[in-house]
Amino acid sequence: MVAYIGQRIAVLIPVVLLVCSAIFAIMHVLPGDPVQLMLAGAEAGVTTPERIEQLRTSMGLNQPIYVQYVHFIVRALQGDLGESIRFQAPVNSLVDTAALQTFQLSLAGMFAALLIGIPLGIVAGLYENSWLDSLAMLVALLGVSMPLFWLGLLLILLVAIHLQWLPAISGVDLRGLVLPAFTLGFVSAGIISRLMRASLIEALRNDYIRTAMAKGVSRRVVAAKHALKNAWIPVITVAGLQFGGMLSGAVITETVFSRPGLGSLIVKAILWHDYPLIQGAVLVTSAAYVIVNLGIDVLYAWVDPRIRYA
Amino acid sequence: MPDFEKTIAARTLTAPRRSGTPRLRGRGAIIWRTFLRNKGAVTGAVVLLAWAGVALFAPRLAPYNPLDLTGISRQGVSPSHIMGTDLLGRDVFSRVLFGARISLAVGLISVATGVTAGSIVGVVAGYYGGRLDGVLMRIIDAMLALPGLLLALVVIAAVGPGLVNVMLAVGVSSIPMYARLVRGSCLSIRNVEYVQAAQAMGGSDGRIMARHIIPNILGPIVVLSTLQVGNAILVGSSLSYLGMGAQPPTPEWGLMTSDGQPYLASAWWMATFPGFAIFSAVMAINLMGDGLRAALDPRSTYR
Lengths: 310, 303
Hints:
The complex is a heterodimer.
Chain A: H1 2-25, H2 34-43, H3 49-58, H4 65-77, H5 91-126, H6 131-145, H7 148-162, H8 175-204, H9 207-214, H10 219-256, H11 262-272, H12 275-303
Chain B: H1 3-14, H2 22-37, H3 39-61, H4 92-128, H5 130-143, H6 148-159, H7 163-189, H8 193-200, H9 205-216, H10 218-241, H11 253-260, H12 269-296
């Protein structure tokens, strides 16, 4: 097991270095002076030649590009993400606060996805080709076809504005998290329910199910104790992968519901040309995504030892 | 389906592609019939054709110019403005119709970008193997270290906002998917007889890849691309919603939804109709893509 984890991490090292390089390159792709772009975005045109020179020196942009590159990688590996132009504050603290918010939203989104997806999938699998099965299929189809921001707006319109059940803007209490969580979790709910259904149907076709039925065990007990136990494994894996993907959906969800978080921070940073903030936030998001996926790989290998020797 | 047809289907689906032979017509007919039996797929195809028609004939169909100020601000749904007017008094219906042009173009162009670049990477990696394969796949892994929309955002961060850059960003973010699919398929047919025969006859690597490998793995690429057009429209309109894509006054569906959001309580039509347009187009493509996948899947012809 330790060897397997070590091997997985070894594969990640070149990936992490390549990601760092790509993130470093963001600032240098466009022709022109990144310093002027940044100041135009962050300080709205009140740039003096002194300010430009000062920023260029403080960011080390007057050094040769390979020196900048090595500095960037070394600092990133030490966990130092530099200073935001717009906020005049360390990127680390901005990103930390935002990451916590996004993590909370992703957890809530995952919870919503499981809450809808699992029961729907089980019912669809048990009553194959019934109207419940069609309903589950429809949810899955809506999930992959609806733009997240539109789903969020429809929920705000219906639940917050017309029915006035829940607030549209996320406040301090948990009630404000319900609509964003549902919006974020909806896509995954569809995917999870389809998989739960397929997995359960497959499990129900096994010989041991027929044996249990032949022994006179009731259909309900067979489904709950024999079939479901074996149907879980693929669902857990995909749910884990979906959790990583929540980071992507969080960008939209946070913007729709005006929530602070990594996603909305990245969007604002791009619109402001705040390169240190973009780089820091993207680096942290990517690291979180890679770590979550590594965790799932390891968990899966632990649950199903055959993976380790494949 | 009669038994002999099943046998033919089973044989032709594993045989290499040879155009103009009766066998291929048989396979095509089976695929076509499977597709037509699927109600969802046919509905999707009809809706998609309707949107394509709207995109082509938008200037004739739209009652107003999408950029003209045709009425008072935020006028509700009425016979003269069947989807109301927006903040500046422009006709939402006309803007939605013209928006079809932009979204379909974003979908098609970004998919074309992604499938071309991704297939080249995939076929080169799969065909040559070895160290080149290792290097290319590490780069692909690095791209996969960012979930979909974020990879597109990183491209936008580097090249700046705008509609053309959105197509590039969405295309680039789909490269890993195509590269992996094509590489996998390529590995599975790299050593079959007709490829070896072409090598023995002295065919150049480029020719073998273009004439023998790519045509024989086209099925899964076509299916993925069809479904991906829907996804590209979703991601593209999301980027415009975030302010990274189309800029005002372009009648782009995502941007229109974003413009309408602050007035959701007083003028619900501004954000609702453009969003529904995205949803209906993407749903149509997904239904059609699923039908195509089922029809092209050799196993489904046995049912």
